[in-house]
């Protein structure tokens, strides 16, 4: 790696967790991406890419929430799909000490790309591992294995209040991935953890699947 004998360096995960003798077996697994840095908080010189390999449940593509949405008792199912996406933002901002900002944008300027629905919030953000795990189908934010780093880590179900104010507004509970593929063909998640300088991005698309 061209490291001088008197030069200090650290090896970290993409979440900037430094590898040590104590946590090596826990952090280093097949397929994990590691950074070789001069310090844990060193700025990255360029963007890095990491391919997420998992077998998507066929329901992600075949059903995409259709059964639940088409069984919406004659109501327009689109608002329920949007509610699933907003539900993620409500959960992410539930512990904000300041203003909770959630924006919903409908983008139709084809010079900027294909039409899209964008949900933007100022929540705590997700690590690369949490984004990875969000991609896995049918892993509820309330029932996950103990070693599973959830995108809702530390989440506490809110006290009973009107559904529009808490983070349990999703009507059918089919999850953000099904909502995405019910509305469109791909999902792009961009997130910056509150305590990190790194920005993580995840892309899922029917074409790639």
Uncertain runs? 140-148, 150-155
Largest sheet: 2 strands, antiparallel
CATH topology of the largest domain: Heat Shock Protein 90
Shape: elongated
The rounded distance between the terminal residues' Cα atoms is: 35 Å
Average pLDDT, all residues = 76
Strand-residue fraction?
A: 15-25%
Percentage of residues assigned to helices: 10-25%
CATH architecture of the largest domain: 2-Layer Sandwich
CATH domain class name of the largest domain = Alpha Beta
The domain count comes to: 2
What letter string, H or E per element, gives the SSE order?
Answer: EHEHHHEEHHEE
Per CATH, the superfamily of the largest domain is Histidine kinase-like ATPase, C-terminal domain
Oligomer: single chain
In order across it, which strands form the biggest sheet? 1-2
Number of E-state strands: 6
Q: What structural category characterises the helix and strand content?
A: alpha+beta
- Computed over alpha carbons, the radius of gyration is 19 Å
Pfam family, one: HATPase_c_3
InterPro entries: HATPase_C_sf (IPR036890), SMCHD1 (IPR038892)
Protein name: SMHD1 protein
Summarize it.
The chain contains 6 helices and 6 strands, in the order βαβαααββααββ. With 209 residues, the protein is α+β, with helices and mostly antiparallel strands.
């Amino acid at each position: 790696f061209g490291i001088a004998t008197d030069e200090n360096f650290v090896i970290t995960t993409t979440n900037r967790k430094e590898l040590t003798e104590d946590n090596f077996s826990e952090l280093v697994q097949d397929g994990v991406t590691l950074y070789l840095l001069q310090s844990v908080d060193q700025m990255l010189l360029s963007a890095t890419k990491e391919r997420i390999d998992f077998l998507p449940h066929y329901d992600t593509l075949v059903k995409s929430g259709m059964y639940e949405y088409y069984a919406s008792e004659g109501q327009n199912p689109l608002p329920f799909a949007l509610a699933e996406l907003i539900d993620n933002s409500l959960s992410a901002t539930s512990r904000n000490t300041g203003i909770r900002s959630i924006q919903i944008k409908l983008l139709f300027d084809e010079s900027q790309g294909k039409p899209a629905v964008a949900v933007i919030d100022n929540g705590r953000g997700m690590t690369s591992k949490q984004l990875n795990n969000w991609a896995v189908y049918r892993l509820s934010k309330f029932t996950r294995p103990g070693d599973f780093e959830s995108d809702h880590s530390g989440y506490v179900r809110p006290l009973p209040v009107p559904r529009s104010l808490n983070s349990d507004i999703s009507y059918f509970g089919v999850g953000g991935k099904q909502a995405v593929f019910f509305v469109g063909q791909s999902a792009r998640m961009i997130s910056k953890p509150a305590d990190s300088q790194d920005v993580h991005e995840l892309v899922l698309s029917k074409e790639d699947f």
